[in-house]
């Protein structure tokens, strides 16, 4: 196989990456999600906790951008590392949002999207799903990933996850944040 050829698992050999149909579709999907994440960040400008949501959506938009320009960047160590760390933070924050949603609903049978916590959990679900598709599936990748890459990603998630409790706890000691952050109530 020549350097300019890439073996696609489903379609044989493509002469150039740009001519592969699945790569064009993957680029288009990333363009749509890039737009969605930018708009989602924009509508959160007036949110009381904008400082959380703009970076959450912004990182996702930034992860989509290189895949629009050059889809093979999904092999980049930097891209994969940022995707795994962001996924881990979003998974952790989703657990927190579900707890807040349960408190808001307090046992009543309601549409969770009527509550801000439900909408935020829904946004996190979209982010988590997109990051899992982009990082852990074969979609948009010309060759199969090895188990080594999966194990490295899981290790990075585990390492990141170990620091999240310390990080969230330490936020309670920043200024008067302990009065505003729900998980800090009753600490002082």
UniProtKB/TrEMBL annotation:
Q: Which UniProt keywords apply?
A: Membrane, Transmembrane, Transmembrane helix
Native source species: Pinctada imbricata (Atlantic pearl-oyster)
Q: Does the keyword Kinase apply?
A: no
Which PANTHER family would you find in this protein's record?
TRANSMEMBRANE PROTEIN 220
Q: Does the keyword Transmembrane apply?
A: yes
Instruction: Check the record and name the Pfam families matching this protein.
Output: TMEM220 (PF15071)
Regions crossing the membrane = 25-44, 50-69, 81-101, 121-137, 149-171
Q: What is this protein called?
A: Transmembrane protein 220
């Amino acid at each position: 196989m020549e350097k300019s050829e890439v073996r696609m698992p489903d379609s044989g050999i493509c002469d150039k990456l740009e001519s592969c149909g699945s790569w064009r579709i993957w680029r288009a999907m990333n363009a749509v999600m890039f737009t969605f994440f930018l708009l989602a960040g924009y509508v959160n400008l007036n949110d009381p906790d904008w400082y959380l949501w703009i970076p959450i959506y912004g990182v996702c938009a930034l992860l989509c951008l290189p895949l629009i320009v050059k889809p093979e960047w999904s092999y980049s160590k930097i891209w994969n590392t940022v995707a795994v760390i962001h996924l881990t933070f979003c998974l952790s924050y989703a657990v927190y949002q579900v707890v807040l949603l349960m408190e808001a609903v307090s046992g009543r049978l309601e549409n969770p999207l009527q509550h801000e916590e439900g909408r935020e959990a829904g946004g996190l679900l979209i982010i988590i799903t997109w990051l899992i598709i982009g990082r852990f599936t074969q979609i948009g990748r010309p060759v199969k990933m090895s188990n080594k890459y999966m194990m490295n990603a899981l290790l990075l998630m585990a390492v990141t996850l170990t620091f999240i409790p310390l990080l969230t706890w330490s936020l309670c000691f920043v200024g008067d944040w302990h009065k505003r952050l729900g998980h800090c109530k009753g600490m002082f």
